[in-house]
Amino acid sequence: MAQESLYFRTDTLGGLSDSQPLSEKLEYVHRTINDHYPFIERLAVAIYDSKTDLLKTFIHSSNGSTPLSHYQARLSEASSLREIIRLGRPRVVNDLSIFCQSPHEHSKRLLSEGYAASYTMPMYRNGELYGFIFFNALQKGVFSEEVLHHLDLFGHLLALSVIQELSHFRTLQAAVQTARDITHHRDNETGAHLDRMSRYSRLIAAELAELHGFSDEYLEQIFLFSPLHDIGKIAIPDGILFKPGRLSREEFEVMKGHTTKGREIIDGMLEHFGIAALDHGNILRNIAHYHHETLDGMGYPEGLQGEQIPIEARIIAVADIFDALTSERPYKSAWSNERAFALLREMAGYSLDPHCVEALLNNADEVERIQRRFGENPLA
Predict the structure, then answer these.
(1) Three-state DSSP class for 46?
(2) Residues 131-171: pLDDT tens digits?
(3) Strands (DSSP E) along the chain, which ranges?
(4) Contact between 277 and 19 (Cβ < 8 Å)
(5) Hey, what's the torsion of the CAs at 91, 49, 228, 297, to 10 degrees?
(6) Is the separation of the CB atoms in 348 and 354 below 8 Å?
(7) CB 78 within 8 A of CB 104
(8) Is the distance from CB of 133 to CB of 151 less than 8 angstroms?
(9) Phi then psi for 31, rounded to 5 degrees?
(10) 301 prior amide bond cis, ω within 30
(11) Per-residue pLDDT tens for 59-68?
(12) How large is the greatest C-alpha to C-alpha distance in the chain, in angstroms?
């Protein structure tokens, strides 16, 4: 027997081992499922933010329309999904018309696009809810026990891929915080500050999603990566970082180096964590390296102008400046939102991206909700 005959088999799910974005892995799994079950029209993942109780659309693969995109809702208000958590079991809906009277926007959108059946699996890791996987069909009654048996296998493999990637970046954030604790580094960047500015950043990105063609995956990357924007300050001497007065020209040059140092630290961390090849690593690098660039070219470290500055850096700049203005610091009192908005308007066009500024201003109510939820703890 020829030795080559031993290697005739193609691994059905071998593509999951490739280095590619999660969205492409999802599409790969969807195509594989469709080889056996062509009626699975849509495969989607929503992820959960326990701090705000928000369930957010993340990645999807749809053979037809995309009924849910850039959408979020509170899990506490979705009784059917809460039952999945309470019972510890997935949800099988072989006739989605039972939700025809539902007041929820996500139910209305799915029904309006003709979806007729759904299977929903929760994603857990060590008891922590990461979100849900949805299998949707345009036909009723298609989720038989045999079909569900195979979808469970695909679903758990997909959940492992999603959780692994999200865990990588949570680990990066934890590593940065640990480094700050070890070096007694605070720079007034409390956990509440990072919670707020990361959500302001996502808010801005979501408002600009249609203009720039942002995917839900990109929005979540902005949310996850924005707290790492000032990681390079770990390398700045305390005498400069905590100097109460104005920095000298020489000291300011050292301070400016935190952007370049941040990029170097990010590169090293991605390499050490074995995720340097991830497609969106450049988003994280851009945030650390370019968040102090300004539209007029007077920023640093490279003096980029206008759209030369990566959009993620322009988004983070607005979120970070706004939170700095509206937060109390040892050397200043907190500004009102109205006063901070007024200054952002003045800076728009020459320093800050005007679309990013307007995106934040358009969501003043949500900004206030974030501030109420993530206020500073005076005992911290």
Answers:
(1) strand
(2) 999 999 999 999 999 999 999 999 999 999 889 888 877 77
(3) 40-49, 54-62, 72-74, 91-93, 117-125, 128-137
(4) yes
(5) 100
(6) yes
(7) yes
(8) no
(9) -60, -40
(10) yes
(11) 999 876 776 7
(12) 82
